[in-house]
Amino acid sequence: MIKAIDAHIHLDMYTETAARTLLAELAECHVEALIAVSRHLDSCKATERLLMQAPEQVFAAYGYHPEQELPTENQLNDLIEWIREHSSSMVAVGEIGLPYYMRLEAESAGLVFELAPYIALIESFLKLAADLDKPVVLHAVYEDADVVCDLLEKHGIKKAHFHWFKGSHSTVKRMIQAGYYISITPDVVYEEEIRTLVRVYPITQLMVETDGPWPFEGPFEGQQTHPRMIHAVIEQIALLKGLSVEEAAHSLLSNTKQFYGIPSLRLF
Ligand SMILES: [Zn+2]
User: 94 alpha carbon to ligand 1 midpoint, in Å?
Assistant: First the structure.
């Protein structure tokens, strides 16, 4: 069985015991590594501690998740300074992006949502990524993805991973042409929108993820989200692409390793 990498997980959001157990189970679940993303400074520090526990399995991304209150100027400066100091222990800047769901919620409650400060926030991180020459992990769906595509072009960033992406046909076309990557979660098993996306997006620009501990529905209902679930995602991608599971698994693994610069484990 070909191993796989969970390309997006919030490992620091599991309890310490659950994270330790999860890491110990990876080998038997044929999961080679995790890309562990962060949400704010404390989350970055926690992710770095997890990386130290399992340095061959955990690869860290440091950033500020957009679906939360804005940081104060001091908090942002502290975070950016910390990331610069710890950049040798990270493979990417993330999770960063735009607050689609928060904005939707505010607007449907009849409130005005100021997007401009969030655009300024993501630009601080895009500048940092360009400066450190690191890829970016993005939370940007639907029309927000177009705004982020413009910003990536503005800052000359070519290595971009839009995790759990959803968007219009024209956005998808633009992202494929720009060479951006997306990752597919377990909802590909039961969401037609995601199945259509998989049929269209080139296998050479796909990765798989759980976004754990985020819970899933369908056959995963009631289960604690675990990296082992990515094998069900790989099987679905193989089916939708008309590939063997081995072929799909091989492509997805090599895409992820190449994108994040993860060395192949020596098997001897
Ligand atoms: Zn996430």
Answer: 9
